[in-house]
Design goal:
With 389 residues, the protein is of the alpha+beta class. The chain is built from 9 helices and 10 strands. The model has no long low-confidence stretch (mean pLDDT 94). It binds the ligand Nc1nc2c(c(=O)[nH]1)N[C@H]1C(S)=C(S)[C@@H](COP(=O)(O)O)O[C@H]1N2 and molybdenum atom. Keywords: Membrane, Transmembrane, Transmembrane helix.
Length: 389
Amino acid sequence: MRNPIDLPLTPPPDTSRVGPFREGFFRSPVHRPRTAAVVGRALGLALLVCLVTGVFSHFVQHPPGGQAWPSRPVQLYRVTQGLHVAAGIAVIPLLLAKLWVVYPRLFGWPPFRTVRDVAERLSVLVLIGAASFEVVSGLLNTLQWYPWAFFFPAAHYEVAWLLLGAVLLHLAVKWPVIAAALGRHRAAEPREDALSRRRFLWGVTGAVGAVTVATVGQTVAPLERLAVLAPRRPSVGPQGLPVNRTSRQAHVERAALDPGWRLEVRGPRPASLTLEELRALPQHAATLPIACVEGWSASGRWSGVRLRDLLELVGAPAGAEVRAVSLEREGNYRESLVQRHHAADPLTLVALDLEGEPLHLEHGFPARLIAPNRPGVLQTKWLARLEVL
Ligand SMILES: Nc1nc2c(c(=O)[nH]1)N[C@H]1C(S)=C(S)[C@@H](COP(=O)(O)O)O[C@H]1N2
Ligand SMILES: [Mo]
């Protein structure tokens, strides 16, 4: 038996741990909790903006319990949805930065010390999965590319709640680390380390700024020329306005150009109006945006007949709701519900003209619905019928 004096004071090197699994392999301060917390705070804020604006957009399109949304401020939906997509785009560099900061933890050894470790790792897996799903599905949706079988809005909405749960759990588990990392009395560190962290954070800030500037012009008109990465330029399209779904995609070319077209208005005293008859009614103009859920928006000067005048014509009761039905036979956006505030709003038009010319076929000729504070998907083109409910 060896004399205890001969035993080494330090344990022998653990040869089972190689490469990144070795203690002290990742030395950069970029990988420390303070960086993780600072990037995480920005990421959390961007995700919060996405959540609030996203839930808002969901409920505008699916009003809970028949709740009627206000039709003012006119630009509200344009702002919230512009923010939703801009914050979602900012999430991309922030999420990548966060993963870069914390990836060394994948090599922590032993992989699981406690049940809490296992739970934490699982929750982080859900967190990364849900966040990646939201970003990728949202981004592909703005490109109108659907390489999947599920219905985008429903999946994007459901996973948002999963993501919220994972974020809250993560915050709860990590709170002591976050508080210490962001706290005033955090441990002093060498100047060099603080500098290299700052360089990293400036890089991340620059990346967020760059992707924002390169896309936000799709909804902020003065920045349109900088929007080199945006899928849409708000002024590019017939009559200076983009088109989301074309008449060909909607299979309405023939029906929309049919000279026998009439707008049917169902109500207590039903009416059926030709284009000439609609033009003979009092015409009104309104400058209103198309605010697409995909993040672009553009204002146009529309004119036509006030929806409320048509409702009056067919003897609809005050506060009536209306279903606007398009000539389109299929498609998710072939019809929309016009709730009472929108139906009564003097700015809500059955538009016949855009920028002083008859509507272009792609913008909904012969007639389309246009209303204030309303998502683009509800601004039904190629109207066939209005139904008082
Ligand atoms: N009938 C019908 N109307 C529709 C759609 C559609 O698919 N079918 N798309 C909507 C969407 S998603 C948007 S953003 C706006 C775009 O209007 P614009 O093509 O005139 O710019 O039209 C809306 N109206
Ligand atoms: Mo849209």
